[in-house]
Amino acid sequence: MKNKAITERDVDFAKWYTDIIRSAKLAEYSNVKGCVILEPNGYAIWENMQHILDKEFKRLGHQNVYMPLFIPESLLNKEKEHVEGFAPEVAWVTHGGSDELEERMCIRPTSETLFCDYYRNAISSYRDLPKLYNQWCNVVRWEKETRPFLRTREFLWQEGHTVHETAKEAEAETHQMLDVYKRFFEDYLAIPVVVGKKTEKEKFAGAEYSLTVEALMYNGVCLQSGTSHYFGQKFSKAFDITFTNRENKLEYPYQTSWGTTTRMIGGLIMVHSDDNGLVLPPKIAPIKVVIIPIKNEDKLLTEANKIADLLSIADIKTIVDNSDKSAGFKFAEQEVNGIPIRIEIGERELEQNKVVAVRRDNREKQEIILNDDIVSNINNIMETMQNDMFKRAEERNKTKTHICKSLDEVANIMKTTPGFIKAMWCEREECETKMKEIGGIKSRCIPLEQESVADKCIFCDKEANTLVVWGIQY
């Protein structure tokens, strides 16, 4: 039976998305326009993401630090391209109490300038390098149009900022962190992605080049999901960061920056969820299993708690729902919240020495004999579910990825089955801009794995060797 509180996904995708967020109690609107309250269910998903990524960052040698929330205007203005790129979104503090500040302070939209100001004093020799730092924090960008998780004026993220002795090391870092994001999306979030390089027009303000992870949502809209930027010496020259190299000469170091945000939660919703609520891949779900006794009877509760203990000892986060609600209500609640596996225990099942495990993604039921290794059984179900969710998303992406050789083809596809458009480009900006005239389509990336789908540029019919993935974006 369909959840009546949730609009059908194929009827109104935007409303469906908001209904999922509110029904699953992931976030709620606040009295501050453009800002949301992350509720326990939503924040728990972010904590899981943070834990997994943080562990990987540290394995690769990164350390966590924390920079101030405020940036003096004079500091922000030191890198021209950077400040021009962020100027429209900056929120300014002009007063401290009732006193006007001598210099305006911006609330950080990103922290490149703060890290550079710190590195200028913290680095003096090649022996001080590399600096591999990351911070988990909030940032503010004064977005005109907002949507929970996808675009809010304040959001949570991580931003890595590293400094290296050579360009080769910095570029290796830039590509390494892109790969970290790709593996996280595919292995943990079960979301297939395209990785590539941003065009000059779309790269991060102040970067030499930007690499990106692009995901495709159920409705064919693209989501920039993580980025990794190579700065070269642009910021080190602007901020006068120097070090004494191995030849005892002063040199500017090479820098990178990389990050991803709570936007990933929006991606999870829009790729996997359905008309009954949230659907979470087991690897990222805060609670993996909910055990529901059909009735709150002692013998059923005793068995439920025994199973919960076994699973919890095996590091499978499990809860027993012994609330005073009907079994049907509990099932519906579990579905809305996206808990991957539901274990049902009734009198008849207990008499037959078994329980029933139900997958959230496809509602498939499986009987488990209590004398069997229930931990292995649940782990097998979760592994299968994780793989199946990735395969479904991958197959959907294939049906929504189109090779186009004319703008008419692009226009027709975007009217019917929007998604990724693969088309050749001559690398001229005026041609790139033409695509935006078709429903706001923009270049998503130049894939790292190139292929040739035509000889000519889709816009000007000149010779083209560069394949670009295009699409409409959140």
Q: What's the helix and strand layout?
A:
Layout: H1 13-23, E1 27-29, E2 36-38, H2 40-59, E3 63-64, E4 70-72, H3 73-76, H4 80-86, E5 91-96, E6 99-107, H5 112-122, E7 131-140, E8 154-164, H6 167-187, E9 193-197, E10 209-216, E11 222-232, H7 234-238, E12 243-244, E13 250-251, E14 254-261, H8 263-272, E15 289-293, H9 298-313, E16 318-320, H10 327-337, E17 341-345, H11 347-351, E18 354-359, E19 365-369, H12 374-399, E20 401-403, H13 407-416, E21 420-425, H14 429-434, E22 442-447, E23 466-471
Parallel strand pairs: 3-7, 15-16, 15-17, 20-21
Antiparallel strand pairs: 1-2, 4-6, 5-6, 7-8, 8-14, 9-10, 9-22, 10-11, 11-14, 12-13, 17-18, 18-19, 21-23, 22-23
What structural class is derived from the secondary structure elements?
A: alpha+beta
Tally of discrete structural domains: 3
In DSSP terms (H or I, runs of 4 or more residues), the helix count works out at: 14
Q: What general form does the structure show? A: globular
Rounded mean pLDDT is: 95
- Supply the CATH class of the largest domain: Alpha Beta
Low-confidence segments: none
CATH architecture of the largest domain: 2-Layer Sandwich
Number of strands: 23
* Main beta sheet: 11 strands, mixed
Sequence of strands across the biggest β-sheet: 3-7-8-14-11-10-9-22-23-21-20
Q: State the helical fraction.
A: 25-40%
Q: What's the CATH topology name of the largest domain?
A: BirA Bifunctional Protein, domain 2
